[in-house]
Structures are given as structure tokens and as C-alpha cells.
Amino acid sequence: MIAYHRPATIEQALAIRATQDVAVIAGGTDIYPAHAARRAWGEPTHKDVLDITAIAGLDRIEATAAGWRIGALVTWSALRAATLPPLFDGLIAAAAEVGGVQVQNRGTILGNLITASPAGDGIPNLLVLDASVEIAGPSPRRVPVQDFLTGYRATALRADEIAVALHVPNLPGARSGFHKLGARRYLVISIVMAAGIVAVEEGRITSARLAVGACGPVAQRLTALEAALIGVVPADAAAVVQAAHLAPLAPLDDIRGSAAYRREAALILLRDLLQGIAG
Questions:
Q1: Which fold has domain 1-52?
Q2: Are 201 and 179 in contact (CB under 8 A)?
Q3: pTM, rounded to two decimals
Q4: How far apart are alpha carbons 77 and 100 in whole angstroms?
Q5: For the chain (length 279 residues), average pLDDT per consecutive 10?
Q6: 175-277: what fold?
């Protein structure tokens, strides 16, 4: 028999988390299908459940002195309905690509990160947003997303901790975008993703952040490309992107595409992305 916990406070949730091996559920759009798949293959076991949906305040997007706080229960649909600056356009575009409407209504942005899938649509966007994860536990801490992801479906979250929010710093005047390549238009796992943010002052790029997903165990920032874009006229940004800038990527051959195909696709997506957000 699976035990089901639904605490009303983060303190109660942490007390359960510290003493029991539980699966933390917010939207449940990853955990429930995984459980069904295991049962189909003859493994009926499942961890006890820690449902955090009754904890007040985790379903809000709030402005802070430094930027925005996105609670652990904020869904993709809630993000799309929120009033946010162009800095979030890429993440909002990803919100429209995550599964179908039912998944968007239940699935959470933070949950997509914690699943740590190489094909997670939100992850490249959170990297370029320079987001950090607020973690509650015995020693509360904030961890940058790039450090939070430690490998294929692995994170820095400890067994006695719960991720409660994302923090996104402001970047005045910035615009963002997101491109995704899949085998069809909707309801598809990514073959390659590209996310980017560009800020421009006096006609030249002053800040650029680019990331590619589904081309390795974790999504990667392309820091050499970002540095090459500083000072460039926005109309020339797409032409800056070269194959050498993709060196940090480690794409694999699989059923959705070869490594060579993914590299070429990433190059094209990055150029198209920059043409759109920097033009």
C-alpha cells in the first residue's frame, strides 16, 4: 500500500521528506506516467507520495527587488496567462510546446527542471534566464540552474530537501526566444532546442545568452558564442554563429536523429533564433 501525504506547510513537508523515501509531486505529469510504465513492465512498486499542492503561496509568480519568483506550483498555462516582459518570451513559447493543453494545465515549470530530461523544453530557457532554484531544507540555499543539473536526469537536490521556487533576475531591455525541432509540429519530444536572450543598447548587443537542449546529457550554454556576440550589430548576429561555437554539445545518435543531424540542426536553429530576437 502506497502512503499518500498532503501537508499544509513546507515545514510539515520537510519533516516527512527528512524521514521517509517519498516521491514529491506537484503536477504529477512525469511521475504518474513513469509509474504506469513500470507497472506495465511488471514492476508494481512505487515510492510513497508527498503531494505539495496544499502548501499556500507556491502557485504564484511574484515580482521581487531583483526580478521574479516563480513558485513550484506555477503551471505552464499560468505562465502563459501572466503579464511578463519580453525577457520571458522564450519560456512562454516553450510553455506552448510542452505536451498538450492537459499537461500544460497540470505540469509545472520547476517540475520540468527537476525531471532533468535532456529534452525538457523549459531547461534551455531557464539557463539563458540565468535562473536559480530556491531550495528548502535543513540549510536553505539557492543554486543556479546550471549547477542544479548534474547529469542525465540528475540534480543537486538532496534527499531531505524540496525545491520551492525559481528566481529570475531582471535584464532591462532584453528580448528572448525559443525554437524547437521535432518530428512533427505538436505533442513531440524535442530533437534539438535553442533558447536565447539578447539585450541591445545604442544599436549593439551588450548581453547575449544562448543555450541548446537535447544535444547531450544536459542542456548547455554556449559561452564562446555569447562572447562573440558582444558589440555586434543585431542585424549581423545570425552570421556570427559558426560550427565551432557548438563544441560544448555532445549529441547522440538515437531513433529521433543522428549526432551529425542534431549539430547541423542546432546551427540553423541558433541562426534563426538570433535573426528573430536580435533583428
A1: 3.30.43
A2: no
A3: 0.94
A4: 11
A5: 92 97 91 63 78 98 98 98 98 92 94 94 97 98 98 96 98 96 74 97 96 96 98 97 97 92 97 90
A6: Enolase-like; domain 1 (3.30.390)
